[in-house]
Amino acid sequence: MKKLIIYDLDGTLVDTREDIANAANQMLRDLGLATHPQNVIERFVGYGVHHFIAHCMQTQDPKRIEQGIKVYRRHYHEHMLDHTRLYPGAKDILEYFKDRFQAVITNKPDPFSVEILKALGVAGYFFHIVAGDSGYPKKPDPASVQDLMRMKKVGPADTLFVGDSLIDLETARNAGVASAIITHGFVSADELKSANPERLFSNFREMLDEARKNQW
């Protein structure tokens, strides 16, 4: 049985796509730049807010990026819960693992990560929430995973990383822990399959069935 379950946030536990895209496009409009379709913006998510805004704005100018980040953060904070919801079955997974150690590691900065989980009523499941500005190197660097394992005296064999992206899969591999990759998020199922994840699920219900059957 796994003792430590670590989750990604955006695209894994929580469907944040529409609110992220809306805030990004409002930022672009405010700065007089062309907007993007939601499916394009989704491809920029996962590597942290600096990478995200640089790609939305299509610039590498540090001053412009910082300006964009400030505008984006304001819009996102005001509207980050307009359409954001837990993915179907997410609460069931959290409840199934409630007697284990559960944590979140996301490249999304605070206060957004904690506030979203609190608003959706699931923050209490986690002993720690590592956001993108928590002081750790961002995923796929394994430092945050390794620190959580040390914190709870849990080894790689007893740890499971649940995510929706190639970044999450790489993070798990870099940390030497098992992964469960869900295809309902920001990355297409075909792209995820091409990376040969050890466990690939369409949704949390499939994952829960497998966890019960194999007594994770």
Characteristics:
216 residues, DNA polymerase, domain 1, Rossmann fold, two-stranded antiparallel ribbon, alpha/beta, 8 strands
Give a description of the structure.
Strands 5-4-1-6-7-8 form a 6-stranded parallel sheet. It has a two-stranded antiparallel sheet with strand order 2-3. The chain is globular. Helix content is 45%, strand content 13%. The chain is of the alpha/beta class and 216 residues long. The mean pLDDT is 97. Helix 5 runs parallel beside helix 10. It folds into 2 domains: 142 residues, HAD superfamily/HAD-like (Rossmann fold); 63 residues, DNA polymerase, domain 1. The protein contains 10 helices and 8 strands. Helix 9 links the parallel strand 7 and strand 8.
Question: Gist?
Answer:
The protein has helices spanning 17-30, 38-42, 49-57, 62-79, 90-96, 112-119, 143-152, 166-175, 189-194, 204-214; strands spanning 4-7, 14-15, 85-86, 101-105, 128-130, 159-163, 178-182, 200-201.
Order of strands, main sheet, comes to: 5-4-1-6-7-8
Radius of gyration, taken over Cα atoms and rounded to an integer in Å: 17 Å
pLDDT below 50 for ≥5 consecutive residues: which ranges? none
What is the N-to-C succession of helices and strands?
Answer: EEHHHHEHEHEHEHEHEH
Q: In CATH, what is the homologous superfamily of the largest domain?
A: HAD superfamily/HAD-like
**What fold name goes in the CATH topology slot of the largest domain?**
Rossmann fold
